Automatic annotation (TrEMBL):
GO terms for molecular function: thiaminase activity. Its EC number is 3.5.99.2. It comes from the Bacteria. Pathway: Cofactor biosynthesis; thiamine diphosphate biosynthesis. Belongs to the TenA family. It catalyses: 4-amino-5-aminomethyl-2-methylpyrimidine + H2O = 4-amino-5-hydroxymethyl-2-methylpyrimidine + NH4(+); thiamine + H2O = 5-(2-hydroxyethyl)-4-methylthiazole + 4-amino-5-hydroxymethyl-2-methylpyrimidine + H(+). GO terms for cellular component: cytosol. Catalyzes an amino-pyrimidine hydrolysis reaction at the C5' of the pyrimidine moiety of thiamine compounds, a reaction that is part of a thiamine salvage pathway. Thus, catalyzes the conversion of 4-amino-5-aminomethyl-2-methylpyrimidine to 4-amino-5-hydroxymethyl-2-methylpyrimidine (HMP). This is Aminopyrimidine aminohydrolase. The keyword Hydrolase applies. Residues 8-216 form the Thiaminase-2/PQQC domain.
Amino acid sequence: MKFSERLHTKLQPIWRKNHSHPFVVEMGKGTLAEEKFRFFMVQDYLYLIEYAKLFAIGAAKAEDVETMGRFASLLDSTMNEEMALHRQYAKQFGITEKELEEAEPSPTTLAYTHYMLHVGQNGGLSELLAALLPCAWSYWEIGRELAAVPGAADHPLYGEWIRMYSSEEFAQTAQWCIDLLDDVTGDASELTLQKLEKIFLNTTRFEYLFWDMAYNEAMWPMDE
Ligand SMILES: Cc1ncc(CN)c(N)n1
C-alpha cells in the first residue's frame, strides 16, 4: 500500500470532521455569514504567506533539478494565483492589500504556520511534505465535494472559492505532492512512517482548528 493511501485511510475520521465542519457545509449551502468568510480570508492570507515559504524550503531541500523547479512553480502559483483570489475578495470587502498583510494573526494561525515551518525547516523533504500535504489535499477534496453541491459553484460570493479549489490546476498540485511523498517514502522504515504519520495527523488537526477559528472569528479572548 502506498504511504498516501495508508494516511488517507487511517485519518478518515478526522478528515470527515474537517469536511463536515459548519464553515465548510454552510459555504456549500451558501448560508455562511459573510463576516465569518471575511475573517477567514484575512487569516488565510496570513497563513498562505507562511505556507508559501514551505515551497521555497522544499526547493532548497530538493535532490534534483526537476523537483526544485516544481517547488518553485508551486511557490509562484500560491503567491500569484491562490493569494490573488484572497486579494480579489479583500478588494470586494474594502480591505487594502496593505491592511491584509498587516493584519494580526490569530493564535491558531500563528500556531499552525509556526508548526509547519518548524517541521519544514528542521526535517527532510518527507517531513516537509507530510506537513504541507493535508493543506493541499483536503482543500482539493473539499473543493470537489462543494462543487458537486447543485448551484454551489455559481454562488455570488463563495462560488469563486469553490471553483478555485475544485480546479484541475489545484488537483494537479495536490496530486504532485501526494506522488512525491509516496516516492520519497518508498523504502522508509516503519519507524520513519510512524513519525511522518504523526506530522500529517498534526496538520490535519490544525486544518480543523483553522475552520473552527474562522467560524468563531476567534482572536485573543483576553483582549475582549
Ligand atoms: C488553512 C489552509 N489550508 C489549506 C489551504 C489550501 N492551500 C489554505 N488556503 N488554507
